[in-house]
Write a structure and sequence with these properties.
two-stranded antiparallel sheet, seven-stranded mixed sheet, binds flavin-adenine dinucleotide
C-alpha cells in the first residue's frame, strides 16, 4: 500500500516566505491569512487528505463506481462518509466568497489544498473540483436569482456540480455541439441531447447535482457562435429552496477507463430536461471558458499531485530496497547490497522529480496569487498585469504541468522496477490516473496552441513581454549572490532561448500557421522551463536570505539551493534543444501524404 503525507512544510515555505502573502493585507481575505493561520490550514487540511481520503485511493480504484439498473450511481465504499466529513469540516469553502458562505481566504490556500486532496485521491478530489469550476461560471455569469438559488449549497458542498461540453461527435471542436435547448413558456428551456465523458455526472455523494450544459437555441448560428450555457439541476429546486421533482436527466452508462476509476465518468442523457439560461444567448462559450480556465489550473495541479505522491513513494522505496553496489565501492559493507538510493541513475530520477514538484508547486501557487491579484489588486495596472500573466501561464500550468507530472509518475514507477508494475503496490495507479490530465480540459496540444495562437499575440505580446521582464529582473537580482549566480545565468540563457523562439514564431508563423502548430508543444515546454527557473530563483533568494538570517532549519534551505542548482544544470539546457526543434519549422512534420504512413 503506497503512503502519502501532505508537503505542508514546502507549501508553507512558498506561501508564507516566497510569495509572502502576509505582506499583501491590501487584498481582500489576505488580512486574515496570517502566517500562523496559513500554517494551521495547511497542517489540518493535509491531515484530512492523508488520513481520511488517501486510504480510499487504492481500494476505490479497484472497486470503481457502479451504475444500477435505474441509472443511479454509487461511489466506492467509504467515499460517501469521507465526503460528508469534507463538507462538515468546510474544506470546500476555503477560498470561496463570503457572500455565499465561503471563508474568503486567498486562492493560494485553496490551491494548496487542491494539491493535497488530489495527491491523496485524484478521483475523490474531482467531485468537489468539478463543482468549483461550475461555481466560478455561476459567480461570473449567473443572475442574482441563480446565484442565490445554487451558490450557497454548492459552496458548502451540500450539492456538487458538473460541466457538460463533450458529445460523441464533438470533443475539442465545440462548434460541433448538437444538444438542443427549446424555450418554454415558463422561461425555462427543454434540454435534449447526449453528453459523454461527464466527470462526476452522477453519484451518491450529494442529494443534488447542478449540471452546467452547453446547448443550442433553435435560431442559433452554427459553430461556436451559437452555443449557450444552461443550468440543469438533477433535482429541481422549489421557490423556497427545497428540493422538488427529479429532472429529466440521467446517467446512461459509466465509461470503463484506464484510470480514475473511482470518479464516475458518465454518458448523460438529457430528455427534455428543464434548464435555465446562464448569461446571454449564444455567449455560452465565453461563460464556459471562465469555468474551463479555473478547471485548467486545477488540472495542472492534478499533474503535480500525481508526481508528488509518486515521488514520495519513489523516495521511500529507494531508501528501503537493496540491489547492487555503489559504483565507487560498497556504501554499507555490512549489508549484502546497497540501497537503490546510491545509484546515480536512481538519484537522477529522484532529483528530476524533486526539482519538478517543488518548482511546479511554486508556479501553481503563484498562479493562485495571480487569481486574487487579477480580481482584487488595488490598482488597475496591477490587476491587468496579474490577468495578463495568469492568462499566459494557464496553458503552461495545465500543459507543461501535466506532461511533466505524468513523466515524473512514470519515472517513480521505474524506481520500483518490476514491483512498480504490480497493482497492489499502487505505483501503476499513479501513472494511470495521471494520464488523463494530459487529455481532458483541452488536450495538451490544444493548450500549446492556446499559448502560441492566442496568448502570445494578444495585446501585441503584452503578456509575454511582462513575463520576460519578470525573469530578467529576477536573474539580475540573483546574480550578485554567489550561491545563485550560476542558476541565474542558466535561467537567463533559457529566457534568451524563449525570446528567440518567440521572435522566430512572429516572423514565421503568420505567413505559415503550420509553423506555429508544429512548434507549439516545444514552445509551451520552453516556457514551462523558464517559468520553473523563475520559481527556483525566487525560492533560492528566499532560502539564501533565511540562511543569512541564521535559520534553525538549515537543511531545508540548503536543499532548496542544491535543488535549484540541479534544475539549472540539468533542466534549463533543454530550452536550447527545444528551440532548435521549433525553428526547424513545419516542413518535415507535414511533408508526407496520408498513404506514406501505412506500414502494411
Ligand atoms: C475521463 C474523462 C473525463 C472527462 N470529463 C469531462 C467532463 O467532465 N466534461 C466534458 O465536457 N468533457 C469531459 N471529458 C472529455 C475531454 O475533455 C475530451 O476527451 C477532450 O476535450 C478531447 O476531446 P476528444 O476526446 O473528442 O478528442 P479529439 O477532439 O477527437 O482530439 C483527439 C486528439 O487530437 C488532437 N487535436 C484535436 N484537435 C486539435 C487541435 N485543434 N490542435 C491540436 N491538436 C488537436 C489532440 O492531441 C487530441 O488529444 C472527459 C474525458 C475523459 C476521458
Amino acid at each position: 500500500m503506497p503512503s502519502y503525507k501532505a508537503p505542508v512544510r514546502d507549501a508553507r515555505f512558498i506561501i508564507n516566505e516566497v510569495l509572502d502573502i502576509g505582506s499583501r493585507s491590501d487584498l481582500p481575505g489576505f488580512g486574515a491569512a496570517s502566517p500562523d493561520l496559513v500554517a494551521t490550514v495547511l497542517e489540518e487540511s493535509g491531515k484530512f487528505a492523508a488520513e481520511v481520503v488517501a486510504p480510499l485511493n487504492l481500494p476505490g480504484d479497484q472497486a470503481g463506481c457502479v451504475r444500477a439498473a435505474d441509472g443511479s450511481v454509487t461511489t466506492p465504499p467509504g467515499f460517501k462518509e469521507a465526503y460528508a466529513k469534507f463538507v462538515e469540516a468546510g474544506w470546500g469553502t476555503l477560498s470561496q466568497p463570503e457572500a455565499f458562505g465561503g471563508q474568503g481566504l486567498p486562492h493560494v490556500l485553496g490551491f494548496a489544498f487542491e494539491e493535497f486532496l488530489s495527491s491523496a485521491n485524484q478521483s475523490f478530489a474531482m467531485y468537489p473540483g468539478l463543482a468549483n469550476g461550475a461555481v466560478s461560471a455561476i459567480l461570473a455569469k449567473g443572475s442574482p436569482e441563480q446565484q442565490a438559488t445554487y451558490l450557497p449549497k454548492m459552496i458548502s458542498g451540500e450539492w456538487l456540480g458538473t460541466m457538460n461540453l463533450t458529445e460523441p461527435q464533438c470533443g475539442t471542436d465545440l462548434g460541433l455541439i448538437r444538444t438542443k435547448a427549446e424555450p418554454q413558456a415558463d422561461g425555462s428551456h427543454a434540454i435534449t441531447g447526449t453528453k459523454i465523458f461527464i466527470s462526476a455526472g452522477d453519484h451518491d455523494l450529494t442529494e443534488n447535482i447542478i449540471h452546467l450544459v452547453l446547448a443550442r437555441l433553435p435560431d442559433a448560428p452554427g459553430g461556436t457562435k451559437g452555443i449557450s450555457l444552461f443550468i440543469v439541476p438533477k433535482v429541481l429546486v422549489n421557490a423556497d429552496g427545497s428540493l422538488g421533482e427529479r429532472n429529466a436527466v440521467s446517467c446512461g452508462a459509466i465509461e470503463h477507463k484506464m484510470g480514475i476509476h473511482a470518479n464516475a465518468t458518465c454518458v448523460m442523457n438529457y430528455d427534455g430536461a428543464k434548464g435555465w439560461l446562464v448569461g446571454e444567448p449564444n455567449k455560452g462559450l465565453a461563460a464556459m471558458f471562465i469555468m474551463m480556465n479555473a478547471a485548467r489550473l486545477g488540472v495542472g495541479i492534478q499533474g503535480l499531485s500525481q508526481a508528488e505522491v509518486a515521488y514520495q513513494n519513489g523516495v521511500a522505496y529507494a531508501l528501503e530496497r537493496r540491489q547492487g553496489r555503489a559504483l565507487a565501492g560498497p556504501a554499507e559493507p555490512g549489508e549484502k547490497a546497497d540501497l537503490l538510493f546510491v545509484h546515480p541513475d536512481v538519484r537522477r530520477m529522484l532529483m528530476e522529480a524533486k526539482a519538478f514538484t517543488e518548482g511546479m508547486r511554486a508556479l501553481a501557487l503563484w498562479g493562485g496569487l495571480l487569481v486574487d491579484l487579477a480580481h482584487a489588486a488595488q490598482t488597475e495596472e496591477e490587476r491587468q498585469q496579474a490577468d495578463d500573466l495568469l492568462g499566459l501561464l494557464t496553458p503552461v500550468i495545465k500543459g507543461y504541468g501535466t506532461d511533466k507530472g505524468y513523466e515524473t509518475a512514470t519515472a517513480m514507477q521505474q524506481i520500483w522496477g518490476g514491483h512498480g508494475f504490480i497493482v497492489e503496490n499502487g505505483m501503476e495507479q499513479f501513472v494511470r490516473d495521471a494520464r488523463i490530465t494530459m487529455i481532458y480540459e483541452g488536450a495538451n496540444g490544444v493548450q500549446a496552441m492556446d499559448l502560441v495562437g492566442r496568448k502570445l499575440p494578444a495585446n501585441m505580446g503584452r503578456a509575454i513581454q511582462l513575463f520576460f521582464a519578470a525573469v530578467d529582473k529576477e536573474c539580475a537580482a540573483a546574480k550578485d549572490d554567489a550561491r545563485l549566480a550560476e542558476l541565474a545565468g542558466r535561467v537567463e540563457k533559457a529566457n534568451a532561448e524563449l525570446k528567440a523562439a518567440t521572435m522566430w514564431l512572429m516572423q514565421n508563423a503568420m505567413a505559415k500557421p503550420d509553423n506555429a502548430g508544429a512548434g507549439a508543444h516545444h514552445y509551451m515546454h520552453i516556457t514551462g522551463i523558464v517559468a520553473l527557473g523563475l520559481m527556483w530563483l525566487r525560492m533560492g533568494r528566499t532560502a539564501a536570505a533565511a540562511l543569512d538570517a541564521g535559520t534553525e532549519d538549515k537543511a531545508f534551505y540548503e536543499a532548496k539551493l542544491a535543488t535549484g542548482r540541479f534544475f539549472g544544470e540539468r533542466v534549463t539546457p533543454d530550452a536550447g534543444a527545444l528551440r532548435r526543434k521549433l525553428e526547424a519549422g513545419a516542413d518535415a512534420v507535414m511533408a508526407l501524404p496520408a498513404e506514406a504512413f501505412a506500414t502494411a
